[in-house]
Amino acid sequence: MATAEEVAKAAERRDIRDRWLLSAPALLVIFLAATGPLLIVLVYSFLTPGSYGDVKWQFSPEAWIAVFLERDIFDDTLSVAAAHVTIFLRSIKLSVVTTIATLVLGFPTAYFMATRSEKTRDLWLFLITIPFWTNLLIRTFAVLQIIRNEGIVNTILLKLGIISSPIQILYTDTAILIGMAYVYLPLMVLPIYASMEKLDFRLVEAGYDLYATRFKVLRKIIFPLVKPGVIAGSILVFIPALGAYVTPSVLGGGKNMMLSNLIELQFGQGRNWPLGSALSIAVMIIVMVALLAYVRNAGKSGVRHG
Amino acid sequence: MNWKTTATAMGLALLASTSLARADGELNIYNWGNYTSPDVIKKFEAKYNIKVTITDYDSNDTALAKVRQGGTGFDIAVPSQTYVPIWIKEGLVLETDPGKMENFKNVAPEWANPDFDPGRKYSVPWALGTVGVVVNTDAYKGPADSWGIIFNTPDELKGKVNVVPEMNDVIFAAIKYVGGQQCTTDKEVLKKVRDTLVAAKPNWIAMEYNTIEKMGAGDFKATSDWNGSALRQRLANPAIHYNYPKEGFGLWSDNVVVLKEAKNVENAKLFQNFIMDPENAAGLSAFHRYANAIVGSDKYMPADMKDAPEVVIPAADKPHAELQQMCAPEIQDIYTKIWTELQK
Fold this sequence. Notes:
By secondary structure, chain A is mainly alpha-helical. Chain A has helices at 4-44, 62-68, 82-114, 118-129, 136-147, 152-159, 173-198, 201-209, 214-242, 246-252, 259-267, 273-300, and strands spanning 47-49, 55-59, 69-71, 78-80. Chain A has 2 domains: 1-38; 83-300, Orthogonal Bundle (MetI-like fold), CATH 1.10.3720.10. In chain A, strands 1-2 form a two-stranded antiparallel sheet. A two-stranded antiparallel ribbon of chain A has the order 3-4. In chain A, α5 (136-147) runs parallel beside α10, α7 (173-198) crosses α10 and α8 (201-209) runs antiparallel to α9. Chain B is α/β, with parallel strands linked by helices. Chain B folds into 2 domains: 18-128 and 252-306, Periplasmic binding protein-like II (D-Maltodextrin-Binding Protein, domain 2, 3-Layer(aba) Sandwich); 132-251 and 315-343, D-Maltodextrin-Binding Protein, domain 2.
């Protein structure tokens, strides 16, 4: 004979089991979809390249060696893969600069939005999300139309007589940065705004009451409180910027490779799928390590408040 | 369901069934984007009562990788001559023996027995073209029949030259420029190629495919390009000229093959035969703007293509044309390394 307590326990167990069973299909799909393709990439990185693309099912560490070392085509000496390092650093630099640019532009924007009246805030939020309605490629081509030699900016400046010949912006690093900052700005604004919205502005008032300067209020009150938003925004911008493909190709002219171009080359004209796979995994690992370090540090130095 | 929706549904079902009954079959074509004349396809559909579906690809490597995975449902693909031997060797294509087809008599003799498909056992010519140098003569008036425009850019064009980033084409051109043979294993030549490319790059503004628009808008004043693209540029701006480099220039041809996994083999063969008809070949050319290998098609060519210097290679330049080949994987590997070095 079961006591009432046992019955209740059994019911609870059944309940837990049912919950797991019911969510199992979804969990399985998520697990397979998240790890399956990655596992294939990982396996491919240890295989031998096929003669004309694809892979031969033969173990080979060559791809991983080629990520870090290169054999000189002409004198056969082995050295650090300088080309890969250069390309990697270029991508990192672009991501860092993009993150800083979007932060500089995004922080005041978010502050402005958060300090509007509650009704108009929604409108501003809505305006920020509008660019997301359009495909990335189309937005990038729109930027191209603005900055090209015959584009809007140059035409206006020429007509006004401010310049006598068009400024070459397109196909420069500046062009890439303009495009990247434009494309990734909403990803920075939204998380900062989310933190800023919760900010208790009475604290700001209190700061002023205690004769803090504007800069001090910003630095000692606002910034520490919205820091989680800044961190989230920076991560959201930095990671996709590292893998950016369309914007650097269209606005930069494709002369200098980014990481994504280097990887694409291996799966396309280079026909070295294992190297492409190894490069992809290497990038993932580096990003993951950098991210963990960043989040940890950011968490440690987090200012206590209350 | 009210009577209106019922009637509509029945009507639609009836329509669907009649259209199914009308087409005797299907044909699924896998081809480069913006390359297949809708008019010629319509004519084919009407003539044989076959419904044609076209799917696009953007590179030989994409097409090869996809078909190699199998289960594509495509009947026909159009690989370039460099890739045809790979498709044959990997057993992806069906031996349809176009050499014995009725319209094969129309194929120009120099294209009837090519090295990439001896005896034309698998493939039918779709289009031919060249890779040369396009120059806007408003910006540069000097001689332009040389790869020097790209690799030793004259002052007027510095910072205004584009290079179409097709690895094999660019390295082929650079090898010709330094006086080597394509697919060479000579390290000295390859070293010169690399040094030439690396030294030339600072004078380029971009490495892009989008030449028609950018040459038209004046973003580029010169570019390496395909002849069909050059023709479109000249029709938009008469100052733009296509030049055949005297050091040697690449010749290519895309070819229609039937896949081994094709479900509509007979329809695919009908199509192979159909496009070797002069009038149809001219129809294809009128759309994609490249030459074809079909004798007698010039009669039906549009007026702006008949004598176009981009389409008809001038007799003086013809000796410098060379059919591009696929190099061995080891050499291809060196190409990739040079390419990475160039774009790093």
